[in-house]
Amino acid sequence: MEESTDMKGKVAIIGAGPSGCYTAQALLKAAPDLEVDIIDALPVPYGLIRYGVAADHQGTKAVTRQFDRVFTRMNARFYGNVKVGQDVTLAALEDAYDTVVVAIGLSADRKLGIPGDELPGVYGSARLTRALYEHPDAAPLPDLGPNPVIIGTGNVAVDLLRLMVKTPEELTGSDLGPGPTEWLEAQSFQRITTLGRSPAAAARFDPAMIRELSNLERINVTLHPPAQGTEGIEGVLAELEGTSAGALPVDFMFERTPRAIHQGPDGLILTVDSPDGSEEIAASSIITAIGFASDGLFDAGTCPGVGWHKTGPTGALPRCREDAQLLATEILKGLSPDPARIGRALLDRLPDTTDFAHWQAIDVFEKTNATPGRCRRKLADKANLLTAPTPQDA
After folding, report:
1. pLDDT digits (tens, 9 = 90+) for 48-102
2. Quick check: 392 pLDDT over 60?
3. In 10 A of CB 219, how many CB atoms?
């Protein structure tokens, strides 16, 4: 994208997660004179990075340093604690800006769609990760019992598995908060099962994330059925099975298609179709990690979308960046700036918004007040997130 320095248009981006920030970055790199404002319902930015990336994957979270520069050097503005549809209408934004981009992601869990998937003890991965990573709107963490079953063969499933099997020492350097840490320590797992419909060779796990498991003390992996090959993800799984020798059994079950869940005398029973016919798997709880969906609360109208809001829950950060760059190119090609549009003056009228300086104060406070073995201690309560800490607090 060639740089154009004479573009004076106004762009609002709804959603301060990676897709929203990448879109702002691409727009301002090409047209530094644009007025770009990023809006979020939460008082703090970075969405999926803060509340969706695993607490022990700080290398991935480091992308926020790049996003910081969008606000500190590229002059985008952050307007937090703004709910579109409640604090300001989408129509008002469309009147105030030349373009409004929707980058709100997906916050709900995709349903299994089988009988019994609403039973107590069945939890979506989004619910669990929001609670583990201290999203201010998260539900309490549930007791998973001795033999939880994770349905899904993607990276969210393996993220949850990795956190569940880690020892307290192996969580050193993460940003897992005191509450989630205590919750993990209170769980008494005797066996963990991860299952999916595909063969092992077609599992969507990132090989690097499976290799991470081989370094963990407690895990002892068995593959069902046994690996048939040594190439690709199947080979990585087979290597994990051969090298893990901890005390906690972890079963990876493939070629299992969930058909129903029902309540048994000692917990849940998951019925699956397997290569050998119908099979029943006992579970103290069931975690579904099969993708995310829209919560259906926001109608984006005809506004251009980016990231998971547009594509569905596919692709990691590089895909988000590529999609954002493509959208930025399209926006700049078709942008017709209207000097009569008021832009951020609309948002400046709103009460109780937070800005990027507010986030910077929270960032310093959380890092300064990190508990031993942690890189930060998140402010989890929304009231605390709305009250910018002072240097004295830190």
Report:
1. 999 999 999 999 999 999 999 999 999 899 999 999 999 999 999 999 999 999 9
2. no
3. 23
Cα(296)–Cα(239) distance, rounded to whole angstroms? Answer: 42
* Block residue for tokens 């349905």: 151
CA pair distance 305, 324, nearest whole angstrom: 9
Look at the alpha carbons of 215, 180, 54, 387 in this order and tell me if their dihedral is positive or negative. negative
Which residue did the predictor score with more confidence, 223 or 319?
Answer: 223
**pTM for the full predicted model:** 0.93
| 10-106+294-386 CATH fold | Rossmann fold (3.40.50)
Which pair of structure tokens corresponds to residue 94?
A: 């469309």
Give 71's contacts (C-beta < 8 A, 6+ positions apart): 45, 77, 78, 356
Domain extents in the chain:
10-106+294-386, 110-293
Tokens of 368: 């300064």
Q: Is CATH 3.50.50.60 the right assignment for the domain spanning 110-293?
A: yes
